[in-house]
Amino acid sequence: MRKIISFVHISLDGFVAGPKGEMDWIKLDEEIFDHVGKRISKGDTALYGRVTYEMMENYWPTAADKPRATKHDKEHSKWYAKAHKVVMSKTMKGADLTNTKVISDKLTDRIMEIKQSGQGGGEDILVFGSPTATHSLMQQNLIDGYWLFVNPIILGQGIPLFKSIQDKTKLKLLTTHQFNCGVTELNYIVDRP
């Protein structure tokens, strides 16, 4: 069965965005893009909340066509076009969306079906950002791992990654990676009995 991995940039004090959703503090560079690109190329399914999905849809389908498109823009745009996208939303309709499935009810059942079906055959299902969707998945104990990019900043306030956690969740550290820009990757798997 495939695993759901939350891929997210966080501040040292655990926030994924500032109080108004600001993400201008996130450090990104070619070293990080190359590292992430290698990892996500093994997968073929991305899970989003509606807001993050709409942001992605507004950028990635045409990112490679822009005059100043970077290597990362071209590579990720190609991956995004092929990827199976799953959107958690109670308001979005999905009949005419290419390569996209919308989950609006029975979250646990629908996610388990996707994990077991192996739709697409790729490795893990990656949750990109999407704090609201991530919180819903956490509450249902559906996240199997956390791929955290800890940025060297303390925000003091904002949208926390870990919110409304009711039970202890033991994690096992799989890998770490230090980037030259000061970001540290921590790759954890949920340690279930």
UniProtKB/TrEMBL annotation:
Pfam families, A to Z: RibD_C
Domain Bacterial bifunctional deaminase-reductase C-terminal, chain residue ranges per copy: 2-183
Source organism superkingdom: Bacteria
SUPFAM superfamilies: Dihydrofolate reductase-like
InterPro entries: DHFR-like_dom_sf (IPR024072), RibDG_C (IPR002734), Riboflavin_Biosynth_HTPR (IPR050765)
Protein known as: Dihydrofolate reductase family protein
Organism: Arenibacter arenosicollis
